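Sequence of Mechanosensitive ion channel family protein (Marixanthomonas ophiurae).
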Amino acid sequence: MDKDFWLQLKEQLLNFLIEIGPEIIYAVVGFIIGIFLIKVTMNLLKRTLKRSRVELSLKTFVESLSVFLLYGLLIFIIGSILGIKTTSFIAVFGAAGIAIALALQGSLANFAGGVLILVFKPFKVGDLIHVNNNLGYVQKIDILYTRIKTFDGRMITMPNGNVSNSDVDNRTMEPYRRIDLNLKFSFETDIDTIRQITINALKKHPKLVKDLPVDIRLDEIGEYEMKLKARCWVESTEYWPVFWEQLEAVKKALDQNGIEIPIPKRAVYQGVTSRLEEK
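Predicted 3D structure, token representation.
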């Protein structure tokens, strides 16, 4: 009986392989050809996008989305070759889609956030942005995440859903940006003298925007000093290097002219202290 069982099992297996064998071979061949065609299509798409004037942020998003769609199409074709009916295939994918959607709600939100970023363009690849307490240059925008590189060399990956729902400070969207230097001086220092020294020092920088004003104004009268704000304009991409250079240039100019930064002072009256001690 055992011998008959194994013979029947062998016969059924052979019949199964005879029936489905060609479909398996076709599916394997189709899979190999599909992988090859996907690589060729992606290379062609990358070349086309590279030659076009499409923004870099949109290019990376389109490439990521294209890979996802092409592999999904390949799976559908392989299923059809194996004899899975289209209606059954759609039903299975629909059920799986619902389950995946419930499990990956965050990822779907990130996908929607990526679409919003590309449509409304609060920033693009190469922009300097400050978002969620992170400051850096945008390196890549794909279908789920945005990557920025900070000044100290860190790569930060942020979900597109969070980014699209946050306040984004784009510091390179406008061509020019104003530098504000907060300075403090004693009340005895002449404001006109400070103004002349500071403006002369600021104007010497070669990267200033010549058509925009360079000035210094009294900003606040404090408890121990007066506070002035010096301002000048530079290209947005040059902001930080010029900021540090201008701050150093103003400090050196003030030192050369004998103007010191004020130190808080406290007056103590001996007479008042003596009366308090007598009481």
